[in-house]
Amino acid sequence: MTKLLSIRLVAILVGLGFAFIALYSFVLGAYAAMTEEPAGHLPYEEPRDIAFSFDGPFGKWDIQQLQRGFKVYDEVCAACHSLKYVAFRDLEQIGYDEGQVKAFAASKQVPGIDPNTGEATTRPGLPTDYFPSPYPNNVAAAAANNNAIPPDLSLMTKARGDGTNYIASLLAGYAEPTAELLEHHPEAAPGPGLYHNPYFPNLNLAMAPPLTTAGQVTYDDGTEATVEQMSEDVAAFLTWTAEPRLVERKQTGWPVLIFLLFATVLAYLSKKQIWAAVKPKKH
Hints:
The protein is mainly alpha-helical. It is about 45% helix and about 5% strand. The protein has a two-stranded antiparallel ribbon. Helix 6 packs antiparallel against helix 8. The longest helix has about 35 residues, at about 1-35. The N and C termini lie far apart (about 60 Å).
């Protein structure tokens, strides 16, 4: 009996030892994961928290800001980036009338077919056409941009975490790397054809700063076109291109929530009425 108890005691102690080692390893690993930077990780900055008119459950589009952002895209970003999921006629949703849309579409050359020869050609755009790509193909796009193909911007704010703030921060965030950063991360130094940006995960990207000076774009409403203002305006415009029904969806959500609340209350009262005669009352 004594021998059996000794064996059990040893087994319990061994089990407790294994449990302690496992718990210690788990705690140590969790602490290391929370405090240590992964190998190859560069300390990029999180996007700035910018207040936009369409934020929150009661948000609405700022039409003037969307038009300013469209102008920044057209005069600056369109030289490299496409909007292949946006048609010219969609611009009527941000306050442009039919005549303005027709004139803008006609000022752009879109791919077409020569009716006489059947060969590919270009023609003035129509409101039903989509924004054309600035390059005929990806090979030409890469050749003109240090072998980096500029992405389409139609859905960019949906493709990036905190997309609107990310784009606004990125466009206004170009700067030289600090001496402290290079001391701890010499690999953060931009290589040939790269530009440092603390909001980009790799800290260096092939896109040159597109917005460099105040007044680069002249706004029709008289707003001062600082780099920060232009960055925020084009970020708002690209939020609209990615989610043109964003505000409508929010406005639809409130009646739905009110209806569901009313239906819940009605169902509860109906349940009380139906089961009142079956369930005995407490005395």
